[in-house]
Design brief:
Length: about 325
């Protein structure tokens, strides 16, 4: 009988402890939530004060910006970053809708788990340089799309998004796209690197090198069509990534030599034509005194047209079929 009472007492005691423990956890969680909610409310109040100091925005526009800012803060973006974006737009007297667009771009990146630093830096850099808002948005939007493509490529090879270096890898792959490497080509390079059992760091280094080579080709003034041919030819003639890079570099050096030779021929031809027409017209020296005749105006031969160095055509952009303007992926 005594033993049974003791057993019941122990069970009751354990049950009471479990209730107390659960209650303590509930209180701590509730307190943390209340604190977080209070912080958010205080931060929104600060942003509202900042917006109220601007006479350029209507009440509707201020509320619109605050709603976007609230979503950004709730998603985990820091208060300082959010405040700096808003203040930067205000200081440049940029319209309210552009403020919302900038905040929404950052929210998309945060929601998708993409790196934020480069996006925020581009916004702040553009604002500091007084760049027009539509141009800032265009640059940041392009950067966001490149980050999304890079992230999707990593998903295709099932790279862990929780990896410590995930954001760094996404940034570097996105930089390769920014340098003009096409989406399909980059994807094929990453997949081939995986097949060759390369680490993600090695694959990233290769993508950066290919992006640099593509950018170098554009700086040389090569057309997108020529760049496509160079990259495709290198990929078709080799199965190893390193060999592809070497062949691309060799082809670019050949193009530089060709361009240099053509430029020299053009300059020599132009100089020769100028010299042959620069002499004094003899007929003007044997005429009788009086008004000198006008003589013939020398006509300079235009020579061979120089290599086009206009980069306005841009790099071969991402193309689904990669048959026109994008660098086609190397065949496995």
């Amino acid at each position: 009988m005594y033993q049974a009472k003791t057993t019941i007492r122990n069970k009751t005691s354990k049950f009471s402890l479990a209730i107390l423990f659960s209650l303590a956890i509930f209180i701590l969680v509730s307190s943390a939530q209340a604190t977080g909610s209070g912080d958010l409310e205080e931060e929104l109040n600060q942003l509202e004060t900042i917006l109220n100091d601007s006479p350029d925005y209507s009440a509707f526009q201020k509320t619109m910006i605050l709603n976007s800012a609230g979503e950004l803060l709730e998603s985990g973006v820091s208060f300082d970053d959010t405040k700096n974006i808003i203040e930067g737009h205000l200081n440049n007297s940029i319209n309210a809708y552009s403020v919302k667009k900038s905040l929404d771009l950052i929210l998309v990146a945060q929601t998708e788990g993409l790196p934020l630093e480069s996006l925020i830096n581009k916004i702040e850099e553009g604002l500091a340089k007084k760049v027009e808002s539509d141009k800032i948005f265009s640059v940041v939007d392009t950067k966001l799309k490149n980050l999304q493509v890079a992230s999707n490529i990593l998903q295709q090879i099932e790279y862990d998004p929780e990896a410590e270096n995930y954001e760094e890898i996404v940034e570097k792959l996105a930089d390769s796209l920014e340098d003009g490497l096409s989406q399909n080509y980059l994807s094929a390079v990453v997949e081939r690197g995986v097949e060759e059992d390369k680490s993600i760091e090695e694959i990233t280094e290769v993508s950066e090198e290919l992006g640099f080579l593509n950018f170098q080709a554009l700086e040389m003034g090569l057309s997108p069509e020529v760049i496509v041919d160079i990259f495709n030819s290198a990929a078709d003639s080799s199965t190893q990534i390193e060999e592809i890079c070497v062949k691309i570099q060799d082809a670019l050096e050949d193009e530089i030599a060709i361009a240099s030779t053509q430029s020299s021929v053009k300059d020599t031809s132009a100089d020769s034509t100028t010299d042959s027409n620069s002499g004094t017209d003899v007929s003007t020296q044997v005429e009788a005194p009086g008004p000198a005749s006008a003589g013939n105006t020398p006509v300079q031969d235009s020579g061979t047209a120089p290599i086009d160095t206009d980069n306005s055509s841009g790099p071969p952009g991402p193309s689904e079929n990669e048959d026109d303007n994008g660098t086609a992926p190397p065949e496995n």
